[in-house]
Design goal:
Number of helices of chain B: 12
Helix content of chain B: 40-55%
Number of strands of chain B: 17
Strand content of chain A: 15-25%
Structural class of chain A: alpha/beta
Order of helices and strands of chain B: HHHEEEEEEHEEEEHHHEHEEHEEHHEEH
Oligomer: heterodimer
Low-confidence stretches of chain B: none
Low-confidence stretches of chain A: 15-30
CATH superfamily of one domain in chain B: PAS domain
Number of helices of chain A: 13
Largest interface: A-B, 34 and 27 residues
CATH topology of the largest domain in chain A: Rossmann fold
Strand order of the largest sheet of chain B: 2-1-6-5-4-3
Mean pLDDT of chain B: 83
Shape of chain A: globular
Strand content of chain B: 15-25%
CATH superfamily of the largest domain in chain A: Response regulator
Chain lengths: 416, 562
Amino acid sequence: MKKIILLIISTLLQTFLVLNAHAQVEGVKPEKPVKVGCLFPLTGPGGLYGRDSAIAVQIAKEQIQNDPERAFPHIAVKIEDTRSKALRSVQIAQAFIENDKVDFLCGVVSSSIARAVTTKARDHETFFIGTDHASPSLVTKDLHPYYFRMSNGTRQSMLAGAKYISENYTVADKPIRIAFVGPDYEYGYQAWDDLRAFLSELDVNYEIAGEYWPKLFETDYTLYLQQLLASKADIVINGHWGLDLVTFVKQARQFKLFEASQFMNFDAGGNYEIFAELGNDMPLGLVLSARHHVNWPQTEQNKQFVDIFYERAGRYPSYAAQGAYSGIYAIAEAVRRAGDAKDKDKVRQALETLELSLPEDPDGFLSKMDPGTHQLLQVQAIGKTVFDNRFPPATVQLGDWHIYYPPEEWPVFNDE
Amino acid sequence: MKIKPAPVRLNLARRYLWGALVAALIPLAIIAGLYDRYSANLLNNLIENRVETNLEATAAKMSNFMAVQVNRLENIADLPDTSAFFRSQDHNAVSDLLNDILTLETESPDIYAVELLNTEGEILYTLPKQRTRTKPKEFNTLPFVQHGRAEVLGPVLPDNGRPGWFLITIPVLSNQQKIGSVSLRMRLASLTEQVASLVEPNVFEPQIVVFDRVRLTPVGTTAQTSETIASSRQFFPGWRIHLVKGRNIYQEPKTYIRYLLLVAAALSALGVIYLFYQMSERISRYLQPLSEGARAIANGDFSVPVSEEAPGELGVLARSYNRMREQLGKLIESRIDIERRAALGNMAAGIAHEIRNPLTTVSTTVHGLKRGEDDAERRNMFEVISSEIARVDTTIGEFLNYARPSEPNKDLVVIKDVLRTIKTLIATTAHEKGITVNLSGESNLKLMIDQAHCRQILLNLALNAIDAMPDGGHLNMRAYRDNGNAILLLADDGCGMDADVLAKIMRPFFTTRSNGSGLGLSVTKQLVDANGGSLDIESEKGVGTTVTVSFPYTRQDQGGAS
């Protein structure tokens, strides 16, 4: 029943957004609107991320159009449901480029889909503004002049995570036993590669207790939990996100994994969606982080973003919302500074030197684009789960924060 | 008489109980042993049956998984666009249709990539492009098998933060000629995860074994070599499932239950032994005195009583034994007395005839001689002879009284009068010895008794008391009623007697005095008995003696008095 209601809401929302986008693409304002084609999963696995992103896109659009101080261009957004399928996503991107003649592609939750879409963007010299996927491959191996990412990648979260372990768990007399479990695709591989690289860089004395790669969208982690428990790790690094993480945590509780090892997830574990889904099943004392938090930073901008989203959606935003919001703002700001969306060099230049004040920025900090990698440099906040029922239905939020500012330049390893 | 302790050996109760114990323990041991074997076999059989069934089912599932992948490959290899790709010299000329089909295939989480290879095995095209691979380090030593059209290379084990994989390849044919091949780079864990249903934590673990040299866990990582319990058929040439012992605790549940049962059986046996031991001790505790008492009676001692606290029939037995002992003692005592009296009666008749009659003649003659004698000294000598003859006659009289007591001639007697008479009779002697005589009690107590007997009883007892107080003392004589009896009590604070003397005091001819006949108390007892009373003596050496004479007292006695 719940699924059916969600499907109906999602269909209505898509219809509304598509109609709205078409209306704007057709041009109500005299100047040519900037055409943006967004790819989000609105149904199926990761559907919530897409639905949150769609609402955030709408909020960003309205704020941009109603901003009296800056003369932002008119933005026309079209959103399509990828259903987390690679071929479908590539075909949608193709259609956006060829049929809708979009100036920007944006969105994409899954890194493996993003890698397929970014190839299409490169081939067609169309800007692709990544808003939610996090694999470093997109800003290293796959990087091309038309790709920019507006959310923290796993490299930033793993750098922060390695620092956190180094500061809090270094033991002099014996190596820390670290096991990794993450989804079996690029996102998981990169996260684990980066964490190990940063741990070595920080001279953390550790040994690998095990590496496990369950399928993306796995529903039964029993085998992996048995292996994790047998590995007797001090720390279990988890690379799951979305419902995979929810399922994993529920099953890990049954196996008492959280009593056996310190559980950490630096990239997506602290996402509001996880807390809302798990409710009272969310254990306390887990070390988690995410690209955006509803209760950090305690700035007026973040509070406003969370409140507006809540008024609009009737729920609090997952981090995907802030990513999509940032993506649309970045496009508007870049085009405003370039003066013309069709002048790709100027747009690229504007994006490469972009500085934006976003909801997840603490006071005194601006998100800043790294011109070398096209990766937005942002702050990563790691916390521990504590009881906090201010954002129902979640009963747990992060607290006991450790804040990690980004390096001046995005770290790139030699083999990339 | 002192009873000798019984020799240490198993009595009947103990033998029966230990016999019963052995009879109970042997079946218990047999049942425990059989159950242990049965449960051990049952568990083994269960494991074997379950393992065999599951192993075969899982092997079939894995065969099917491989067949599905081969089928996927065949579908790709048989596409005209695939053949066209290999015939073309441009190795990027993948048609949109083929590209879309390959992309769709790679959306399966089981497939990492699809590779198109030339006849030399060189990769011409990989989809997704980002997953282009280089040759693994150990390429030349990787397991390789051919099954039908399909070739399987690998598994390539997880390394450096990347999961393991294996390659399934089939040739692409054109006019019966191989023009290239298509490979699926498969996720290794997708195959190994199929054994999930075989995992029995703490009992056994499945491993996927390839040519007995590569061992994989259910999550596709390298497995430790362990002892194999069971092995499946080959689900693909060279690939099998092995079941190995779990993490050192394969035997634990089975052994634990068996030990638990054996310990329970041993504890039950100990419990039964303890129970039987306690029962044996308890029954022996009651039977032992009975046995010793019986031996005492056999040895002529009727004075050994048995505790009557034993429960049930043993208590009844102990009470019956005591009653029997008392009755038997009295019977034998009475029989001895009768026989003694019969013997004495015959002797008394002889004495009366052979001694007393001639003695009367002697006495009469001496009396005649004395009367005719003028010499004062000789008269005095005749007096002495007469006196001694009289003393002999008195002694013979006492003896005859004992042997052939006279029947009592009962009449109402005022006890106060008798006591006063006795006091008067002994007054002189008592005074000489410094003895104070007190009378007390009911002044009007009357008894139906032979008066002469009564006087003799009290006189004998009073004289015995005076003899017991050579250095003076007190003699209290008291008459009173108690519980339907009239009591005549004589208490002195003389030398008293020890228990040994007290036990013999009633026997005829027993005396502690040099000039005593040993018949005084015997006669007294006899007189008391003849008048329906009883006599009881309590004495303590150095403290004194109390004699209690008790006669039944009835209203008739009182009525007679009034």
